[in-house]
Structure formats: C-alpha cells, structure tokens
Automatic annotation (TrEMBL):
Residues at which ATP binds: 125, 175, 207-218, 233
Organismal lineage: Eukaryota, Viridiplantae, Streptophyta, Embryophyta, Tracheophyta
Organism: Triticum turgidum subsp. durum (Durum wheat)
Name of the featured protein: Inositol-tetrakisphosphate 1-kinase
Keyword ATP-binding included in the entry's annotation: yes
One GO molecular-function entry: ATP binding
Annotated stretches, region: Disordered: 1-28
GO cellular component, one term: cytoplasm
GO biological process, any: inositol trisphosphate metabolic process
Subunit description: Monomer.
Length: 349
C-alpha cells in the first residue's frame, strides 16, 4: 500500500496514457510505476499468460484505479525489486517456489497470490479433486461429486486388472497425472475397451466418462467473485459407440475459449447454468479448503440426472482474459486486498 506519493483518481482520469502501459510486453519501469501508484502488483507469469491476462483494457482500468503491474525478474533478488504490495504468479519450478517462500518470510506484509504449496495441490489431477471428494455439498436439491477415478503410476500392462478391481466403467478418460502448463499435460484420450488399456502411457489418471449433453460450465473464482460461462465439450457416448469402438482415441483440445457456447441455441435443460447459491457455496468452500483465491472449476451436469454435478478439473490462475468483464472484477479484487491491508495498517495489526 503506497502511503506516500498518492495520485488522486481525478488526476488519474485526466492523465495521458503512457503507451508503455498499454503494451503487456513492455511493463512500466518499477520505480516510476511504484511512485505513481497506490498499489503495486509484481507478476511472474509465462509469456503466454502475460499476453492473455495483461490486456490493454486491464492495464488501462488498473491505471485509473491507481494499480500498476511490474514484471518480476526471477534472476534477481525480490527484495531489490518493487516494493510490491501484491505478487501474482503462475510458475511451477521448485526454484521459483523456494525463491518466493524465502522472500515472503522476510516480507510477510506482501500478499502472495497464492501460496506456492496451495497451488501445487492443483498441479496433480489426483490431489486437485481430493478436496471436492471430501466436500459435503449435496443437498436435497443437488449433488456435487467427482467422477470415479484411478491413478496409474507405472506398468501399463497392469491397467486392465486395476480397472476391473476398482470397478470402473468404460469408456475412461485418460489424463496425464501432472499438470505443468505444457501442452502435453492437456493431451487426453478416451479408452473404449479393456484390451487397449495397456497402450496408455502412465503416470495418469483414468476417469469415468460422464455423459453431459456436450456442455461444460467454467466457473471462475476471483476472491469472492464468481462468474460462470458455458463451453462446448465432448459429445455423449452411447451404447452404439461403445459396442462399435475399440482402441484409444486422442481427444482434441475441447472446451477452450473458442468453444464458447454462451450464445448457442441449446436445449434449455442442457444450457441452464448451475444454480447461483450452489456455485457460491462451492466457491466459498473450495477457496477455504484449497487456500486459493484465483482458480476455476470445470463442471458438468450429468445427462438425465439434472441435479448431479461433477467437478472434473480445477485450474490455478486460468484464462481470466476470456472471462467477460474480467478487468473490472480483477481490479476490484486487487483494490479490496489493498483496502484490507490499509485498514490493518491503521489498526496497527
Ligand atoms: O486446463 P484447462 O481447463 O484447459 O484451463 C486452461 C488453462 O487455465 C490455461 O492456462 P495455462 O495455459 O496457463 O494452463 C488457459 O489459457 P490462457 O492462460 O492462455 O488463457 C485456458 O484458458 P482458455 O483458453 O480461456 O480456456 C484455460 O482454459
Ligand atoms: N470425466 C469426464 N467426462 C466427460 N467429459 C470429460 C471428462 N473429463 C474431461 N472431459 C472433457 O475433456 C475436457 C478436458 O478435460 P480436463 O479434465 O478439463 O483437462 P484439462 O486440464 O486439459 O482442461 C473437459 O473440458 C471436458 O470437455
Ligand atoms: Mg479443463
Ligand atoms: Mg486443467
């Protein structure tokens, strides 16, 4: 929280936009930005994430609200950069984790979004869903669960026996166990028959495929704010498909931003968004249990069981840039963190 050198909103409104602020690839110089802002946000994000997240509309609005973004140089000590009020990051290396944790020990006043060990929980497709499995969100009206799944660490030849012993029903979605930001970790396949299972490549999770009318709900969480969008997903698998398909099918990358189904002409029973109170409860519970403030949930609703929802994926710091109005929600969130910190400062806490 900058207590000196503040610039009022009125002054900011009239200010001429520095072109450097409009280009995500050339963030403002640290000291200059810090001097003009009340909230300094350092970021350590991949190039791809910088491009999708730090869009001109976010930078413009942030600037108006007295928030500046500064790129962190990971090769230099963090204490020699900034000073930061908030650090945003999505980097999976152990070195970065240690670097950040060491810095946070010395600078507990800096808000780190989010703690590296909490993020790590989402980098593995088994641990990411554990908290959901422990949730007791099912009510008289709805049920929230995860598909049954099995982890295979090695020895592909043992998969058919392991699947039979776990009582999993085919078809199965095979997903790489570790999610590390590479496109390989998103290479999924669908296994139709038991005999082909040894062709899979562990370590992976095998998850029961759930028919859901081909529509997925992406639920974005930013602190306490929740936004949900519809995306096209995989088509349902029927008995005919099951009887006539054998082998392992590589799945295309589905449910990405280009697959928006928000304006599609859909059967209302399939298109209907999950009820708001359910999403709020889910967001609140998962925020607390995961210890994270920035994530999204991929959710599907079982076809023919209109009140049963399955959570199939949770992503840290997802593609917020494709979420309608994200610039407002995100800057409001950053401001609220700044406010809380300022109040704690005033009360000597
Ligand atoms: O695992 P899934 O469910 O696919 O979620 C992905 C990841 O979060 C991607 O980020 P990352 O590549 O950092 O893992 C993100 O890409 P961007 O960060 O480029 O936006 C995608 O945004 P969409 O493209 O909006 O789906 C988001 O859908
Ligand atoms: N168990 C499942 N049943 C039906 N469809 C699924 C299942 N798991 C994944 N999918 C489909 O595959 C897509 C990608 O799977 P997901 O687990 O979200 O992996 P990623 O992390 O690569 O996004 C989902 O968005 C959904 O369309
Ligand atoms: Mg997903
Ligand atoms: Mg994912």
């Amino acid at each position: 929280m900058r207590l000196h050198g503040d610039v009022s909103d009125d002054e900011e409104e009239g200010a001429v936009m520095d072109p450097a602020l409009l280009s995500p690839s050339s963030p403002p110089a640290g000291a200059a930005a810090a001097a003009a802002s009340r909230l300094v946000v350092g970021y350590a994000l991949t190039k791809k994430k910088v491009k999708s997240f730090l869009q001109p509309k976010l930078l413009l609005l942030a600037r108006k609200k007295g928030i500046s973004f500064i790129s962190i140089d990971e090769t230099h000590p963090l204490s020699e950069q900034g000073p930061f009020d908030i650090i945003l990051h999505k980097k999976t290396s152990k070195e970065w984790q240690r670097f950040l944790e060491d810095y946070h020990e010395v600078h507990p006043e800096v808000t780190v979004l989010d703690p590296p060990n909490a993020i790590e929980h989402l980098n593995n497709r088994q641990s990411m869903l554990e908290e959901v499995a422990d949730l007791n969100l099912s009510s008289f009206y709805e049920e929230v669960c995860t598909p049954r799944q099995l982890v295979i660490m090695k020895d592909p030849s043992s998969i058919p026996t392991a699947v039979a012993m776990a009582g999993l029903t085919l078809p199965l979605v095979a997903k790489p166990l570790v999610v590390d930001g590479t496109s390989k970790s998103h290479e999924l396949s669908l296994a139709y028959d038991e005999a082909s299972l040894p062709m899979l490549d562990p370590p992976l999770v095998l998850q029961e495929f759930v028919n859901h009318g081909g529509i997925l709900f992406k639920v974005y969480i930013i602190g306490e704010a929740i936004q949900v969008v519809r995306r096209f997903s995989l088509p349902d698998v029927n008995t005919y498909d099951l009887l006539n398909n054998v082998g392992i099918y590589r799945l295309p990358r589905v449910s990405c931003a280009a697959a928006s189904a928000d304006h599609a002409d859909l059967d209302p029973r399939i298109a209907e968004l999950p009820p708001r109170p359910l999403l709020e409860k889910l967001g609140r519970e998962l925020r607390g249990r995961l210890g994270l403030r920035l994530f999204n949930i991929d959710m599907i609703r079982e076809l023919g069981a209109n009140d049963r929802y399955y959570i199939i994926d949770i992503n840290y710091f997802p593609g917020y840039g494709k979420m309608p109005g994200y610039e407002h929600i995100f800057t409001d969130f950053l401001q609220s963190l700044g406010q809380n910190k300022y109040q704690r400062c005033l009360s000597g806490g």
